[in-house]
Amino acid sequence: MFTENANRIFDRAIGEYHRWDDVDRPIENPFEQGTIDRLLYHKNWIDTVQWHLEDIIRDPQIDPAAALGIKRRIDRSNQERTDMVEYIDSYLMDKYRDVHPAADARLNTETPAWAIDRLSILALKIYHMERETERGDDAHRDACRRKLAVLLEQRADLSRAIEELIEDIEAGRKYMKTYKQMKMYNDPALNPVLYARKK
């Protein structure tokens, strides 16, 4: 199953990141160039680094200049994350290019890759909630176990929904349509603060 493989790859990327727990450590992608596995690993590595940058920037004692640098890094990371989603969708569009949708085929609310994006984030939530079940007092651990159970149920439901979407695309019951995401805040031609500086 696609999602079983994706979840396994996400867990591997998260585990390998936490061997060092260093937001500056370069990615060492173990999968072959041009494969969906390589894209999935890279996608989750971006998400994992960004997760920890989001933690760091919330330190109340952080130096404001350092916080600004991290905020700009998070902006770049968000763009990379979006790019990776589009690469995954492009891979799937190419994979199913010979499928002819039925006349009554429907469009899904999101592409498979945007659902996979949520699955990647869920893997991070599950990893970190599991860590929380191992620390603190009994009340904290019990509360985190309950939250973990919900996250695991959510992953099972989302995985099933993605599988059904892929099955529908393969059978021509649904079709894919992608839009290039336009991150306006990163674009000097679209962000009014940036293009005002050119005047």
How would you describe what is shown here?
- This protein is mainly α and 199 residues long.
- The protein is globular.
- The N and C termini lie far apart (54 Å).
- The protein contains six helices and two strands; from the N terminus they run H-H-H-E-H-H-E-H.
- It has helices spanning 2-17, 36-57, 64-95, 112-132, 138-171, 192-196, and strands at 106-107, 174-175.
Would you kindly provide a brief summary of this structure?
The protein is an all-alpha fold and 199 residues long.
SSE map:
Blueprint: H1 2-17, H2 36-57, H3 64-95, E1 106-107, H4 112-132, H5 138-171, E2 174-175, H6 192-196
Parallel strand pairs: 1-2
Helix pairs in contact: 1-2, 1-4, 2-3, 2-4, 3-4, 4-5
Rg result: 19 Å
Order of helices and strands: HHHEHHEH
The helix/strand class is mainly alpha
User: For the largest beta sheet, what order do the strands appear in spatially?
Assistant: 1-2
H/I helix tally: 6
**Biggest pleated sheet:** 2 strands, parallel
End-to-end gap: 54 Å
pLDDT < 50 stretches: none
Q: Helix amount, in percent?
A: 55-70%
Strand content: under 5%
What integer is the average pLDDT? 95
Cα shape: globular
Number of DSSP-assigned strands: 2
